[in-house]
Amino acid sequence: MTEPSRDAAPIDRMVVGLGNPGPRYAPTRHNVGFRVVDHLAARLSVRLMPSSCGSLAARHGGLLLVQPQTYMNRSGYAVRCWTERLTLAPAQVLIVYDDIHLPLGRLRLRRGGSAAGQKGIASVLENLGTDGVPRLRLGVADDDGPPAGESLVDFVLATFPDARQDDVDAQIARASDASLSWAQDGIDAAMQQHNG
User: Fold this and answer.
1) One of 30, 39, 60, 194 is an active-site residue; which one?
2) Tens digit of each residue's pLDDT (9 = 90 or more) over 136-150
3) Annotated catalytic, 101?
């Protein structure tokens, strides 16, 4: 991605999808954040390109879409790098990621909070020095949670069952809607419209 020209409108919102780079991880539960950003890029007719801050990025007006190309637990580096380059406050950044505590199909948009064990958002909060970072959590759990005896790492690095792919696609589309609502209308309006 080329750097914004001086004549371009300033970037004032950034949506960051968390995931792990590479085709091996693309279809896994852990990569739904990347999939939301891919969906947004296609919807806005922009292309994610290798860019600054160890990431893929694309710009649409004042909105920047980002996929950090570090592994999940080091995602905060790219977020901090972009916020410093663009002089963005944490409230101007939306982090989109998977949540094993929510069932597949459930979205939760929040203005801040703890990492709740998710290492990608933990890295972001540590790098930004605040828990006041808006986030959109996408449920990836089966209706009864991870199978008994399976490690959480194995669970999030597994693919969704074939029978649930339509549900996954629908959730990605709804999360794309919620992300645009956040960018255009603000956190309160987006929470009211998309949580539930």
Assistant:
1) 30
2) 999 999 876 666 667
3) no
